[in-house]
Amino acid sequence: MNILLADDNAERATALALTLSADPGVTVSRLRQGELLSDAVAAQAPDIVLVDMARPDRDALEGIRQVARDNPRPIVLFVDEDDPAFMEDAIGAGVSSYNVVGLSQPDVKPILRAAAALFRRHQSVAGELRQAEKRLLEREIIDRAKAILIKQRKYNEPEAYKWLRRQAMCSARRIVDIAQDLVQAHKGDAA
C-alpha cells in the first residue's frame, strides 16, 4: 500500500510516517513543502492519501476536490477539532474518511483500510450508475427510433423493434447504433 502523507506539522508527520512505515507492506511518501496535493497525487499515484490538518481550512478542501475530480483516490482526513459543517464540506469534496483526533494519534491502519474499502464501494456504485444511465439513454434512442418507424411505416411496436433488430443483425452492429442513425436521419429530414 502506497500512502501519500500531507501534513504541515513536520514532527507529527514524521511520527506518523514512521508508524506506518513499520509495516513492511506500506510505503509512505510525503507532500513536499509548497507542492500542490493534486500534483503530488498525479506524480506518485498513491493508493491512499492521508491529510492531517491541525486547523481545518476550507481552502485546503479545494486541493482535495481537485484530487477527487482528476485522480480519484481514497482520502483520509484527520482534524484536531470537531466541526460538523466542515465535515460535510470535506466529505462533499471527496474525503472517504473524516476523523477527529485528540493529542494522541489513533491506530490509523484500520482507518486507512476502511477508507479504501468505502472508496472502492463508492467507485463501484458510481460505475453502476453510469452504466444504468447509459442503458436508459440507449433505451430512449431505441424508443425514438421505434416511434419514427411506427409513424412513417405504420409498424406496430413489435414490428418496429423487429425491423431495428434485423437491420442490426444484417450490418453486424448494435441495435442502438441503428436506432441512432435512424433518429439522426429523421432529424435531417425534419429540417
Descriptive keywords:
191 residues; alpha/beta; Rossmann fold; Arc Repressor Mutant, subunit A; 2 domains; five-stranded parallel beta sheet; 7 helices; 13% strand; elongated
Q: Give the CATH architecture of the largest domain.
A: 3-Layer(aba) Sandwich
Structural class: alpha/beta
Major sheet size, sense and barrel closure: 5 strands, parallel
CATH class of the largest domain: Alpha Beta
Q: Which residue ranges are poorly predicted, with pLDDT under 50 across at least 5 consecutive positions?
A: none
State which percent range the strand residues make up. Answer: 5-15%
Write up this protein:
62% of the residues lie in helices and 13% in strands. It is an alpha/beta fold and 191 residues long. It folds into two domains: 2-106, 3-Layer(aba) Sandwich (Rossmann fold); 132-190, Arc Repressor Mutant, subunit A. Helix 5 (108-153) packs across helix 6 (157-171). The longest helix has 46 residues, at 108-153. The model has no long low-confidence stretch (mean pLDDT 88).
SSE layout:
Elements: E1 2-7, H1 10-21, E2 27-30, H2 37-44, E3 48-53, H3 60-70, E4 75-79, H4 84-93, E5 97-100, H5 108-153, H6 157-171, H7 175-190
Parallel strand pairs: 1-2, 1-3, 3-4, 4-5
